[in-house]
Design the sequence.
């Protein structure tokens, strides 16, 4: 007996170091995987943030603007009719030509005007409308620069060669003069957060797409959460276990794996062609995304309901609760954190979805801010796609900035999920 | 109160010792015949008892609940064979037997808790005060309010102590205003012997109590709806001896006002708390008799084999 134990110990000890080595390796694999994941994340974030940050700045040029009555063609600055008809281009032209009198030829003059944004005249109109007393005065104003100037000025701060793009040698010279005079500066880009899509990068903003996303998600949430939870409760608590419910279950699981563009086609065929709803509106987008999110919500809600211990159900039934009371008073509160997590994951998925929305026309170029779920809109990921597709250099940084906004949305939603979970979770 | 328990414990000690002694004397000549049948033949052994009537006195004069020829099937499998048993008014009846003998199944039939199991099918009659509880017209919700249940594992709701007890009265609308509810909660907790321990922390979660306290909370929750019958499914199996003693004491007190059916694995417990004892074996009610009789002079050889610890 003693001999036998001795031998067992010997064998065990001989293998021990090998076992420990294997265990160390095993742990290392896990650590490496996590390291790799984190590295990817860091690379992604650094790239996006470094590219996107400049988009939050905007270049402006200081010009002495003379609100000349004759040039503007305005005699009374309080008359909206006259204000609208005013020739603001003219006073802008005069201002920049006054700055650079050496530009004589027609071509030079045009190149000079091209350095200012098309939107500048509208800004002047707004300024004058707000402050009619300015008529006849000369005011030093920071005028929005064209996107080419904007990109060039911002690239001067960065590493490597400054990006000249479409700017001519002459224009670069003028910009340099402005820099030397300290008549050019970059300031916070409010346009990006207050405007909708535009062909001119310096006038393009994310608000329209963000609102579109918000409206779409609200529709999705309002539809998919109640429907998903009700379906999960029925399947889990009431449905008899037979071939038919098994079939339903298999199909729900299959639906979760259907490529999202198929849902887009379905939405196009049913909601737009059959029911005649408008294209490009958040209502239809929300309906399509509801179809896509439902399986996720149903599956996670069922898992959450299943995980409620049977002892709690028995306790409720044992004191004479009806089935509905048992579900509403005990099962649902305990399953709620899991259901909400599933729902928010589904929502996050819906937020990042592009393909099905392309099918129902939410890819349109929409300048107006959507005011409701029936106004044409686009959504954040589609906006990112559109900007990434645009040739102007200035859209590169805006694409990254839009991704940052989308990520901020996602992080906010996930934080909300964690917070809700913490709040609603009960221990037993 | 303590004296009562001690008395009971003393008494039960005496009875078990007595029975052990008496059995030793009597069972020696029977050993060879009894032991081979149930212990070695296992499940097949029940077949020979299937046709037999239950030995003893399964019926009583003032039954609260009556069960007649109850057969229970889980799917195709029959787990209970023709069980007929009365539960007398204000009586504590203990159900004992080896694991899987159907005593818990029978208990769960009494308030239709088996309805929650899809494959479960029940034949025969079970009635409460002469009314068939399996009548399709009968509503199961009021039935469960009349026949309450305490489970094996303490299962308080993850809510406050107050809400745990108040839940039943609330859903049944037994009280009209807050003060009345407060009173029901207080009396229920007092009856369950928990009031003094929790009166200062009624708003704390019931799940934060110790195991024994949780089980008494569950009993308080059950009696808060003033049931007529309380079913207890191994209420002490998860508790230590001190908590067990408290629950047993409580059962003795409750038996003055309620009819109690208790399933237990502890024969000492059955001997201590019950008036009558029913012995189940493989889905068959073998013997039902006065508790003293079952433990001192079992009529059936299998009952005797079980309570002397030769199998089960």
Sequence:
């Amino acid at each position: 007996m003693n001999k036998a134990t001795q031998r067992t110990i010997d064998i065990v000890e001989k293998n021990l170091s090998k076992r420990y080595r294997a265990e160390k390796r095993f742990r290392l694999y896990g650590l490496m995987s996590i390291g790799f994941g984190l590295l990817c994340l860091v690379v992604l974030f650094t790239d996006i943030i470094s590219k996107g940050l400049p988009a939050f700045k905007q270049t402006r040029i200081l010009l002495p603007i003379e609100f000349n009555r004759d040039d503007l063609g305005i005699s009374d600055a309080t008359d909206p009719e006259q204000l609208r008809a005013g020739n603001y281009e003219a006073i802008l032209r005069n201002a920049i030509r006054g700055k650079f009198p050496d530009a004589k030829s027609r071509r030079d003059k045009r190149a000079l005007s091209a350095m200012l944004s098309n939107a500048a005249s509208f800004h002047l109109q707004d300024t004058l409308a707000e402050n009619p007393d300015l008529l006849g005065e000369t005011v030093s104003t920071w005028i929005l620069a064209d996107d080419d100037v904007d990109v060039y000025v911002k690239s001067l701060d960065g590493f490597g060669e400054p990006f000249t793009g479409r700017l001519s040698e002459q224009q670069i010279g003028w910009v340099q003069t402005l820099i030397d005079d300290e008549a050019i500066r970059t300031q916070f880009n409010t346009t990006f957060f207050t405007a909708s899509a535009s062909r001119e990068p310096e006038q393009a903003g994310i608000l329209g797409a963000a609102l579109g996303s918000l409206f779409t998600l609200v529709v999705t949430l309002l539809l998919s959460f109640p429907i998903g939870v009700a379906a999960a409760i029925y399947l889990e608590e009431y449905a008899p276990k037979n071939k038919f419910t098994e079939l339903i279950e298999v199909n729900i699981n299959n639906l979760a794996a259907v490529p999202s563009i198929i849902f887009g086609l379905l939405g196009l065929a049913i909601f737009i062609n059959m029911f005649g709803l408008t294209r490009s509106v958040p209502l239809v987008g929300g309906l399509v995304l509801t179809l896509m999110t439902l399986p996720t919500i149903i599956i996670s809600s069922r898992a959450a309901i299943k995980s409620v211990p049977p002892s709690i159900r028995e306790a409720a039934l044992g004191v004479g609760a009806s089935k509905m009371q048992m579900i509403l008073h005990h099962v649902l509160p305990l399953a709620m954190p899991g259901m909400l997590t599933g729902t928010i994951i589904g929502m996050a998925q819906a937020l990042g979805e592009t393909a099905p929305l392309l099918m129902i026309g939410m890819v349109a170029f929409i300048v107006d801010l959507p005011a409701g779920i029936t106004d044409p809109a686009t959504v954040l990921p589609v906006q990112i796609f559109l900007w990434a597709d645009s040739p102007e250099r200035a859209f590169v940084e805006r694409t990254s900035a839009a991704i940052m906004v989308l990520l901020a949305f996602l992080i906010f939603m996930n934080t909300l999920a964690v917070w809700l979970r913490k709040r609603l979770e009960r221990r037993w | 109160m303590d004296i009562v328990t001690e008395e009971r414990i003393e008494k039960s000690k005496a009875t078990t010792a007595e029975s052990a002694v008496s059995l030793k004397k009597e069972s020696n000549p029977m050993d060879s015949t009894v032991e081979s049948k149930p212990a070695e033949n296992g499940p097949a052994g029940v077949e020979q008892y299937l046709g037999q009537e239950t030995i003893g006195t399964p019926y009583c004069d003032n039954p609260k609940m009556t069960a007649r020829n109850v057969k229970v099937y889980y799917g195709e499998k029959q787990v209970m064979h023709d069980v007929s048993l009365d539960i007398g008014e204000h009586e504590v009846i203990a159900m004992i037997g080896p694991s899987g003998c159907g005593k818990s199944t029978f208990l769960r039939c009494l308030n239709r808790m088996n309805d929650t199991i899809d494959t479960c099918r029940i034949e025969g009659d079970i009635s409460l005060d002469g009314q068939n509880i399996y009548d399709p017209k009968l509503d199961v919700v009021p039935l469960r309010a009349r026949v309450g249940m305490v489970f094996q594992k303490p299962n308080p709701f993850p809510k406050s102590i107050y809400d745990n007890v108040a839940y039943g009265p609330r859903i049944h609308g037994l009280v009209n205003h807050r003060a009345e509810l407060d009173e029901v909660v207080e009396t229920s907790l007092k009856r369950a012997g928990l009031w003094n321990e929790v009166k200062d922390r009624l708003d704390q979660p019931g799940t934060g109590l110790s195991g024994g306290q949780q089980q008494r909370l569950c009993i308080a929750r059950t009696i808060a709806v003033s049931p007529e019958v309380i079913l207890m499914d191994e209420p002490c199996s998860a508790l230590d001896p001190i908590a067990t003693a408290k629950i047993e004491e409580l059962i003795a007190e409750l038996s003055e006002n309620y009819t109690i059916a208790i399933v237990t694995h502890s024969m000492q417990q059955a001997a201590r708390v019950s008036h009558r004892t029913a012995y189940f074996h493989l889905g068959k009610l073998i013997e039902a008799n006065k508790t003293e009789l079952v433990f001192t002079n079992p009529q059936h050889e299998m009952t005797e084999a079980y309570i002397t610890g030769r199998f089960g």
